[in-house]
Design a protein that fits this description.
The complex is a heterodimer of chains A (386) and B (575). Chain A has 386 residues and is of the alpha+beta class. Chain A has 9 helices and 20 strands. Chain B is mainly α. In chain B, the strands form 3 sheets. Chain B has a two-stranded antiparallel sheet with strand order 1-2. A two-stranded parallel ribbon of chain B has the order 3-4. In chain B, strands 5-6 form a two-stranded antiparallel ribbon. Classes of the chains: A alpha+beta (386), B mainly alpha (575).
């Protein structure tokens, strides 16, 4: 993931920044069931790195392995190059925030935040009380040190949990679905705040969420996990625009997936219509109900040009599937529509598959939908060449 | 952890082990001869002994079906345990229905009081029943007052069964109430909306979730009453001896090998029942989380209909019966302690205790040493039982491979009878053991403390473990990631949060120690290590009055200890 062809990792730390956390072939089994397997990832210093995926994909287990709450059954985890196998959680210098905040109910807000300072001197040479005050300031809850956690709202507890995790000045901040217990609007506000605090402190952060939108919004890089293994590790824009697999394509945002066989009629010539002058070319794909042209771009051209007879899976985002476009398209039946305010999401049925488009006006009957070959993205191809 | 294991081995597994060894080693030769003799002896196994001796099973079955069958001591023990179980379930389940499904003033109090009989000193309860059922007991006094003929219940099976129900019905009620309360109302509502009537919904949804609890209560009741000792000793005498009482007698006759073999037979039967139950339970486990319990109905509806009135009438009858069973022995004991031979009020029995304290001979049991010993043993055994119980609770609530084994090993003392533990400690430690050429003998009082700690710590586990279990794992993990070691987390986070459970555990440990009779009477024989319950038993042999007075002393001291623990616990919590 060293290169960034889309140039969209602007906010990410320097690609040359040292590696803060490194997972090397990490696996974890519980009584024979595999929770995570073959996890390789490198988190750079100061990076906001997010593990995202459906429930059971191993993202929380991966976080717990990094925190030291569980020990990997395979592979190794290194902090700043040093293997942390056998290092207990209390000696890893990490801050952890849980989904349910896990505030100690028998302690005040101030005592909660100060708890980690019983085992480490406050960074910056300040007193314990001063450090607690600083952190309450940082999370925008000044003057609440003497309150009971129970007297706080969910969002406030979440920020106290964050302050508590940050108080001893950890090298690494681990957040396990810290916002999933909050309502949608508060979540959106809070994630901006979390990101701002992270950027201010420049602390390396590993964030776990099942919410792909949250992952895209908050992260420098995202690891999309499935079945215990990351399927793609890349900046949010890359994950969205160039998903590495059909699973990623469908998990991150709405997508329309087409499958077909490459047919003759492609002279291998450059006939892209995107006008960017890049060396893209298109291939015709028989999807059963006609032939659609798909642009083959990027690295694929050099190494793996699809040939007639190859099976190809590609996807087109709903916003790129234009209603009424007959060229390079199919005809589909309107099934249902959801009015979302700024747009309407219409579900179509085509060849037994579901397609999704965005429109402003309600649709009915049978409609033509088509796309620019440059907006199609190939997620899978299998050769028939033996 | 290692210390806990060491204590368990030293004061439980090693002594019990020596008993097992003693039962199979005769004159230095390993043999099952003692067992074979035991199994073939009709004195122990009645008609079943003929089966073990190789007779035709059909003939044995016919003999068992005949009215003049002989059960033998083991058979009788199982028979009375079975009857006691039936009585306890019959008395306990209506209580659960009342507590789980109705709302009335004092419901919470009664619910928490259901634990009390379980920790009441059994010898004191036995004295209470003697005062109730005895020839001059309160029951006969009431009957005479009503112009009815008197009844002779002493040394009958009925008295024993009622006394056992006193102990175990609240246990059945407790576990059943808990199960009933965890039935999700929406499950019942779903069944109703799908077309099931109220009865059908009860049969299909409520009953399947409640009856495993009833079964658990019954299994525990059977095990406890199978190993019963003080109640039978006081109410049954040697005519109605159970296995435990007979072991005690064999120990008194210094017939250790036969006592040990009989104790092993008893243990095997008890553990089989428990194991069968646990197997069943493992297959039944239902997890209920975030449930909405069934709503409670008011016990006293403003305008009752006939349909509402009927179950309430039934409950009213039940309440009268229950009040008699549970309150009569305590009330009778209090009454008997201030009633003279002529039926008038008197403080003679208490005066007798003071007199005995002043002038009692060295061989006689005096009240003050009994009180002092009880207090010292209670404090010492609680100090051992508390840390042990907390550590076992921590070890059994954590998820790891082999947890079930750890739980079973740690909780085994719960199922092993006091006589067996007492006998083991007596033979294994008090009489001395040779280690690397050194003869190590433990004082009788230390052995008593050990026996009490072993009897008490499972209760600490029971009161502390649920709190730890429900404690959010991420609280512990947060503390660890903030730099606290495992032990530090226990001190800073877990213990403060489960502190009420720890205090309750301490109260249990003290109550168990104060009331423990079985192991103590074995260990205190001849020694000066007698406690209040032992003193009661010595007195009861002669006259009831002083025994009831001593019983009241025991009740008061135990009650005061509870108050003190409560105070201390409350203060410490504020730290």
């Amino acid at each position: 993931m060293g290169s960034d062809p889309l140039g969209d990792g602007a906010s990410a730390p320097d690609a040359d920044a040292p590696i803060a956390v490194e997972l090397d072939g990490v696996g974890k089994q519980y009584d024979g069931t595999v929770a995570v397997e073959g996890v390789d990832m490198r988190v750079r210093e100061g990076e906001f790195f997010t593990l995202v995926g459906p429930s059971g994909c191993g993202k929380t287990t991966t976080l717990r392995l990094i925190a030291g709450f569980e020990a990997p059954t395979e592979g190794s985890i290194r902090f700043g190059g040093a293997d942390v196998a056998g290092v207990p959680p209390e000696d890893r210098n990490v801050g952890v925030v849980f989904q349910n905040y896990a505030l100690f109910p028998h302690m005040t807000v101030g005592e909660n935040i100060g708890y980690g300072l019983r085992f480490a001197d406050p960074p910056g040479g300040v007193s314990r009380e001063e450090r607690v005050r600083e952190l309450l300031e940082l999370v925008d809850l000044p003057g609440t040190a003497d309150r009971d956690p129970e007297s706080l709202s969910g969002g406030q507890r979440q920020r106290v949990a964050m302050a508590r995790a940050l108080a001893p000045g950890p090298d690494l901040l681990l957040l396990d679905e810290p916002m999933s217990a909050l309502d949608a609007r508060l979540r959106e506000r809070l994630r901006v705040q979390v990101r701002a605090i992270q950027a201010e402190l420049g602390i390396t952060t590993v964030y776990v969420t099942h919410d792909q939108e949250e992952a895209l919004a908050i992260s420098d890089r995202v690891a999309v996990m499935r079945g215990g293994t990351p399927e793609q590790v890349a900046p949010p824009r890359t994950v969205y625009r160039r998903p590495a697999s059909q699973f990623v394509a469908e998990f991150v945002g709405d997508n329309n997936v087409f499958e077909g066989v490459v047919v003759e009629g492609n002279d291998g010539r450059d006939d892209a219509v995107d006008g960017t002058g890049s060396s893209a070319r298109t291939v015709p794909v028989d999807v059963g109900d006609g032939t659609l042209r798909v642009e083959i771009g990027g690295e694929a051209i050099e190494t793996d040009v699809p040939r007639p007879g190859d099976r190809l899976t590609f996807c087109v985002r709903p916003q790129h599937l234009r209603v009424g476009r007959t060229e390079n398209g199919v005809r589909a039946d309107v099934e249902s529509a959801e009015f979302l305010g700024e747009t309407t999401r219409v579900h179509l049925s085509w060849e037994g598959e579901e397609l999704v488009v965005r429109t402003e006006d309600p649709l009915e009957g049978t409609v033509a939908v088509g796309f620019d070959p440059a907006d199609a993205h190939v997620v899978d191809e299998s050769s028939n060449r033996g | 952890m290692a210390a806990t294991v060491a204590v368990l081995v030293a004061v439980f597994y090693y002594p019990v082990g020596t008993v097992l060894v003693e039962s199979v080693v005769v004159d230095g030769v390993v043999t099952l001869g003692v067992f074979v003799e035991l199994l073939r002896d009709p004195f122990y196994f009645g008609e079943l002994a003929r089966l073990f001796a190789g007779e035709n099973p059909l003939a044995v079955a016919r003999a068992l079906a005949s009215p003049d069958r002989r059960l033998g001591i083991v058979g009788f023990t199982a028979y009375q345990a079975g009857l006691s179980t039936v009585a306890s379930v019959a008395l306990g389940v209506p209580a659960a229905y009342l507590l789980a499904r109705f709302e009335f003033p004092g419901r919470r109090t009664i619910r928490s009081l259901t634990i009390v009989p379980f920790v009441l000193p059994s010898i004191m309860v036995a004295v209470g029943y003697v005062a109730t059922f005895g020839r001059n007991g309160t029951l006969n006094a009431v009957l005479t007052g009503l112009g009815l003929p008197t009844v002779e219940l002493m040394f009958t099976l009925e008295a024993i069964v009622i006394a056992h129900a006193f102990y175990n019905a609240p246990l059945v009620a407790r576990v059943t109430t808990a199960a009933w309360e965890s039935v999700d109302a929406s499950a019942v509502e779903t069944a109703r909306s799908l077309g099931a009537g109220p009865v059908r919904a009860f049969v299909d949804v409520v009953a399947p979730q409640v009856y495993p609890a009833v079964l658990m209560g019954a299994a525990l009741t059977f095990v406890f009453t199978f190993g019963t000792f003080p109640i039978v000793l006081a109410l049954g005498g040697f005519e109605l001896a159970t296995v435990e009482v007979f072991i005690y007698r064999l120990v008194g006759d210094l017939n250790y090998a036969e006592a040990a073999a009989l104790a092993v037979v008893e243990l095997v039967i008890s553990l089989s029942v428990l194991a069968a139950y646990l197997r069943y339970e493992a297959a039944q486990t239902v997890t209920s989380r975030g449930i909405r319990p069934l709503p409670r109905r008011s016990l006293f509806p403003p305008a009752p209909t006939v349909r509402e009135l009927l179950p309430r009438l039934g409950l009213a009858v039940y309440v009268v019966v229950a009040a008699l069973v549970f309150l009569a022995p305590i009330a009778s004991m209090l009454l008997a302690s201030v009633t003279g031979g002529d039926g008038g009020l008197t403080l003679d029995h208490y005066r007798f205790l003071l007199e005995r304290q002043r002038t009692g001979a060295a061989f006689q049991v005096r009240p003050w040493p009994a009180v002092r010993n009880s207090l010292v043993f209670a404090a010492a055994s609680a100090l051992v039982a508390l840390p042990m119980g907390v550590i076992v609770a921590v070890a059994t609530t954590r998820q790891y491979r082999g947890r079930t084994l750890v739980a079973a090993v740690a909780m085994a003392p719960f199922a092993v009878s006091g006589i067996l533990v007492g006998l083991g400690l007596l033979r294994g430690l008090v009489f001395g053991v040779e280690v690397a050429g050194w003869r190590i003998a433990v004082a009788g009082s230390a052995a008593v403390v050990a026996a009490h700690a072993v009897a008490g710590y499972p209760f600490v586990v029971r009161t502390v473990a649920p709190g730890l279990e429900s404690l959010d794992r991420s609280l512990v993990e947060s503390a660890r990631s903030l730099g606290a070691s495992r032990a530090r987390v226990l001190r800073d986070v877990e213990l403060p949060l489960v502190w009420p459970g720890v205090v309750a555990g301490a109260a249990f440990a003290v109550a168990i120690s104060m009331g423990e009779f079985t192991a103590t009477v074995v260990l205190a024989a001849g020694a000066d290590a007698y406690t209040m319950p032992v003193a009661i038993e010595r007195f009861i042999g002669r006259r009831l009055g002083p025994a009831t007075a001593m019983g009241v002393v025991l009740l008061v001291v135990t009650g005061l200890s509870f108050v003190v623990i409560e105070r201390l616990g409350g203060e410490y919590r504020g730290l």
